[in-house]
Amino acid sequence: MPILTRNRNNRKRLDPYLLLLFFFVACLVLWLGAILCSLPMGVPGLGKEVASLQQRSGVQSPVTAVLLNFRGYDTFLEVLVLLLAVIGVWSMTLAPFPSGEVEKSPVQLGVVRLLTPLMVLVGAYLVWQGSHLAGGAFQGGAVLGGAGVLLLVAELPWLRSVPSLPLRIALLAGPLVFFSVALYCLLRQGKFLAYPQDTAGAFLLIIETACALSIGVTLASLFAGGRPDDDLPETGTPSDPQGGRTE
Amino acid sequence: MLFDSSSWIIAPIVLPLMAGLFCFLFTRGTFAISVVASIANLVTVVVLHRQLISFGPTRYVVGGWRVPLGITLRTDGPALLMLLMAAVTGVAITFYARGYFSFRIAEPKREGRHERQQRFFWPLWMMLLGSLNALFLSSDIFNLYVTLELVSVSAAALAALSGKPASQIAAFRYLLVSLLGSLSYLLGVVFIYKIHGVLDLDMLRMAASGGPALGAALALMTVGLLLKTALFPLHFWLPPAHANALAPVSAILSGLVVKGSFYLLFRLWFDVFPGVIATPALNLMGLLGAGAILWGSVQAIRQQRLKLLVAYSTVSQLGYLFVAFPLARLENGAGVWTAVTFMALAHACAKAAMFMAAGAIFLQVGHDRIRDLAGVRACLPVASLAYAVAGVNLMGLPPSGGFMAKWLLLTSSLASCRWWWGLVIMAGSLLAAIYVFRVVSRLFVIPAGEPLRACYPHSILLEWPALILALISLLLGFAAPYPLQLLDTAQSAMALFYGGLP
Amino acid sequence: MITNFLYSFCGLFVFFMGFFALIACSHPLRKILAVNVMSTGVFLILVAGAYRPASVGDIDPVPHAMVLTGIVVSVSVTALALILACRVQETSNLSLLRPKSINGREESED
Fold it and tell me: For chain C, what is the domain count?
């Protein structure tokens, strides 16, 4: 498609700029590939460090230990990236729900009724499992987000009137709990995000649960694609024409 | 209670970020939250400065895990000067934004639109400020990637806030370019992790040994960061994105956001991997910087709209930061460090002031066509003065911070017999004089025979923050010893740490 | 050993394939997808780097955590870019790739 474009006579021809770009990119791949192959294999990385400190992290899964304990600050900022995306999306538009009632097929409603609780259960299980195996807040949150997407796709009427404040609280639960724990550690241990060793596991579970909830709601909100109707109550006109839905 | 003074370092990160969360949670009182947070941020930055002067540079291990595994924050001269830049400019922008939005809301052209802008401006701005502080303080290449993404997401959302098609298109391109830059940086990080197996900057400084692989990694990171910094010829996205945003947002983007990626680049080149960088690479940077100075100035002179002119002048002023690269390796390298810091500080204040003044003019006049701006002084005396004073800084007249920076660069270029860089710097000042006077002459001359402009009432917050920032940039030249002292403390202490650095 | 190189090289290939598409394609959706493909390439290289031969020791979990972080960042950014692209489609019938039409516009503020 890109390199060969059709000209006016509908004959294929080469775009010289794209060809140039193609060769440039090909050279880059070869150069960097050669460098990748020349890299030594024996670089130890941080695996040993993680293994030696694993006992003190409060969880058995090394990935969870790195994610939430050793490099918890990264994860703290990353949860904020998700939140920022929601704020950005909310700043642009109202959530575009289709107007008018549509007849729902009973199969669809049945699937939603069956699958949603199951997905919530699986999400919760993944969060719990994260302490010793693969899993954790992000995996659990993604499944919860999937449940939200399922509800949104089914266009259930009550989703349209989800109030803004509880939604915002759910979105902020993860970051706020994370922040509170970090602050508590600062006051107790003297370091930001340094969990007390004996209760680290419990703290991590609290953080993971709150984050999983927030991530699930965040993903569903991103899928909904805008802020709820009642988010700007002061203006008096709930559906403002500029930020409003499709014109 | 084990809270000790070393934990102050997280305050500039946590305070604005939390303020952002609360601004999103509450729909009322967001301005109060933001003012408190930005002033508290300034206070903590001042405290950190005092700590640096008395105790020297410090490391703070977040989470308490020792270095190869944990993430470290660091205070030293350059980091704290950048923090100061963001904090001072941030307070002014916060007050200005209040004046800006209340003017807009008082006179609604379209119901609800300005409320929406105000509602989402505060959380995005506060989180951007916190992310920038996190970027300046971080000492871990992967954590720096996360902060870069935080900055680009919030900056792109802010750029799109105006809601007009032009600004949304520009914001979309801005977002894509930022993403491309971040990904290129991340690929470089991956290479470095594969080579050295550590992520901490200090450990990398000690481990770095050169070789083609590290060179490739640095090239990838550099290209990504240059794209984000909008160095000529990668500046194509900057003028539309900065010129089409809301005025407070333009001030934030032009004054602060581009400095974030520049600071990281400078840090990587001259602090972490100084031994790896070859002279041709430095000269290439200088060459691109010179191109930016000349091209940006010429484009600024050609613009018909005020905000585009100011945006192109950002392209040109960023060039000075890169002309410092080939000079920084020479004997009086410390002078060049100071020059770069001065340039960044002075440009942040002056450019934010200029965009604020331009925004005030736009609100009062209703457009920003330069040829129709005659006599705006009658309406906006303070903002016009602010524009002119900020212009003095861009031209590099004494005693402004811009003068100090250019003077330092000029002397080191002449001292090392590289007069051609000096020539470019002087030519840039001359061109800056042209594009500044082109606007100032219109603003201050009230044409005879025409009726005075009708003025809408506006709060003092629309004008005075701009003037105060412009005056700070003007008087920065008098404060020259302070950054020098700060950088000296940092350098000598670093030399103690690592046994000698350039 | 050879598998590790193969994965790394594939990641590099995918990264630059995305890079090429990002520049060559003009449709906003394709551009967003291209950025996603690029980030997938980086993650592939990163995860391939986590592999350690049995003689050296355990698998390195740090790249895994980095990839998880990266995926979350990329998801949020993609969502933002998609909504932005939708808004542009709704409010204008401009093509996203004509800088002239942006620079030349009169109205800037609000």
Answer: 1
